[in-house]
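Reposting from the mailing list since nobody answered there.

I have sequence plus structure tokens for a pair of proteins and want to know whether others read the tokens the same way I do. The first protein:
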Amino acid sequence: MKLWVLRHGEAEARATSDAERRLTEHGREQVLRSAAQLLGQPLQAVLASPYVRAQQTAMLVCDALSFDKPLITVPWLTPESGADQVIAELDKLGLEHVLLVSHQPLVGTLVGMLEQGHRREPQPMGTATLAELEGDWPLAGLMTLRSLSHP
């Protein structure tokens, strides 16, 4: 399995709620630079948090890659979600090549947990940072971090 974990691009500092924060122009540019790292990858699905900035990030990536499958919005990719829940949901999907678009602290905890097997060393992930993991199963401690790209 190959799993890519992308943190959303830079978002505006304020909005009516955290979920409604939109990408800035700089954030859009960051996302497009990260999307370039995914060119030629055999993605089967793009899953994103329902928050506006993650939705915008995922749509920019899909457009840049000419990804022709629908974006899948899931409630278990919000900032408050747990890495354990994400791992369980990924296992249920049974897909081989997946991109997740989400937020800190979830993305750092998830990458650290998949690689290290615990939550004690979350991976630092700035806006639009893309992590590529590979392994036989999406289980804690059983995936290898192949690359970490910062825009």
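The second protein, same order (residues first, tokens after):
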Amino acid sequence: MAGTSLVSASSEYSDTLLQVCSRLPPCQVTEEDLSQNPQFTKLLLEVSQHMDESGLSVSLRKELDEAEEKLRLQKKAWLRSEVVDRLIHEMLLEYRVKLREPGLTSEDQKFYESLEQCSLVSECSRMLDPTGPVTGEDRPPLLGLKTQDLKGYLPGKQDLLQMRDRLHREIEERLKRKCFSLLCFHQPEANGDSEVLKAAKASRLAATLEDEKRRLCSEKEKHTEMMGLLEKQRSTYPQVLLRCLDLLRTLAVQFRLQSQSETDRSSAQYLETKCTALFLKARMEELQVLTDTYTSEKVEVHGMIRDDLQRDIQVLEQDVQSCRQILNTYEILGPEFEELVKEYTRLKQELQYNKWALKELGKSSF
């Protein structure tokens, strides 16, 4: 039991150390390294209390978070003022375009002139700022002018108050139109909604865009990770394919080619046996046809016919032999006998002709 408790305690201790190492900057530390270096493990435990996972100290991280929060607030204030400034410049550009067109009322003209004067004075005041942007040291004023020298170019107090009241309404209206335009661009289905519903959706548009931005960043990280994995697979797959080809080549040489001769020999024996069986079957069919064609009676008759033909052949051979002897005897007599034979043949033909003539004459006399 004691050994089991010690093992479990050691395992929990190792898990704790691994969790601590995971909170530190990226480092490849295994459980074996921690068990083999107890002093290093102790050092990691102490360091993890003063550092975060990015490698910064706790105090420096706190200061960095505060600085980032201040920067965020300053960015927010700058963006707010930049938006208002751009809207004012946009209104002044529209005013300059409207000056070339009829229909501009005196009230509108007075408002835009007061706004343009205030914009110019504000811009000139920023240019006359005596504080240095980098060193913070005082500089001599530009052209010897100060901010108080420009206040005389501002419109009257009454005109300024009227311009300010209308400017608030104009900026609010323009911001609302731009927000609705951005909402309809992001959500085209909101074109047919009422202004109240559009305002409600526009109030949630920033959070929606922020969520989409985070999701897009997450997808980009996943895409980058997948591209890295794809590149690894592209470099790994050819090597795996080459190893597979080597294995297939080895298998083909060791097994396929060695057994091919045996397969061919077996195939040749099979074909030879099959051909012999086909020849025997053809011979058997031939014998069967002969057996069905020639019965015992037919064979007996054929034997009798053959015996008669043999006897006739023997008789003819004897006649041929006797004729040859007679011819040999006639050949001994010489050429004079040949002339007698020719004469005998001629006389025999004339005799046959005369017999035929007499026969014809006898037919005609009747």
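Reply #1 (J.P.):
I read it the same way you do. Residues 1-7, 132-136 have pLDDT under 50 and may be disordered.
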